[in-house]
Each structure stands twice: as structure tokens, then as C-alpha cells.
Amino acid sequence: MVKRTSFEGDACPIARSLDAIGDWWSMLIIREALFGVRRFGEFQKRLGLAKNILTVRLRALVDQGILKTAPASDGSAYQEYLLTPKGRGVFPILVALRQWSEEFDEHPHEIATILVDREQGKPVRKLELHAQDGRLLSADDIALKPRTAKARTRATA
Fold this sequence. Notes:
Mean pLDDT: 90
Largest sheet: 2 strands, antiparallel
Number of helices: 7
Helix content: 40-55%
Shape: globular
């Protein structure tokens, strides 16, 4: 496999995030884990991914603290891959990607599922970004400003 450029120390949080979860196989592994897949063989079967690539991706997700390994819950000699809180934090990212695709895909009728609230069975509302006072924000409404030295010190402490 070709070694990618690392963005681990980049000042941009988007670049840092992509360094951890930015390839499609990792995102699909996390998707499957969110739906309860835990074992190597299940990931391999559901994704159709070559075993060597799956091994590398699972190891990287464990190294990043997105997944953790645990003994199999059925007492067998296998291990399971479980999402950590950091891994569960990817959920809104996956929902945003899904909703973007549902809105802009050239063939939305080919999307086999809809995302619904399990309790009510109704479609989930589109994710939105709101200001502290509740206003709906668009890209035109936001800006980046430098973090103060005090805030940088707290963030690294």
C-alpha cells in the first residue's frame, strides 16, 4: 500500500480528522460497526474487502482509538472490534455524508434505504448548524478566527 501524507500535526482540524478517518474503507467499517458488526469475518463479508486491506484498516482504527478490541462476547477464541466514544462520535459525520448524497446524488431513487427515527419510524430531519442563539447558519455566516494563546494552552494541557 502506498504511504499517505500524514496530517496528524496539521493546524487544520479537518485535515487532522481526515488523517484518522478519511479513507472510504475506514468510514464504511465504522458504518458497519455502528450497525452492530463486531467480527473480522462479518466486516469482510459485509464489505467484500480483501482481508489484507481490512486488517490494515482495522489496525489503524484501533491505533487511532476509534475501535478497541475485546474478547468475543460468545466466549470463543475470536476477538471483537467495538466502537469507542471517539468512534461513536463519527456518527453525525456519516449522517451528514448520507444526507448530502440523498440531496445531490444523480440517481437518488437507487438509494435503497432511508434513515428513520427507530421509535417513531419517521425520516430523520436534515442536520443543521445553529448559532449559540439558535439562528440557522450557512457557510456565508461563519468565519475562522485565530485561537488565543490562552485557549491553545488549555487545549494542549
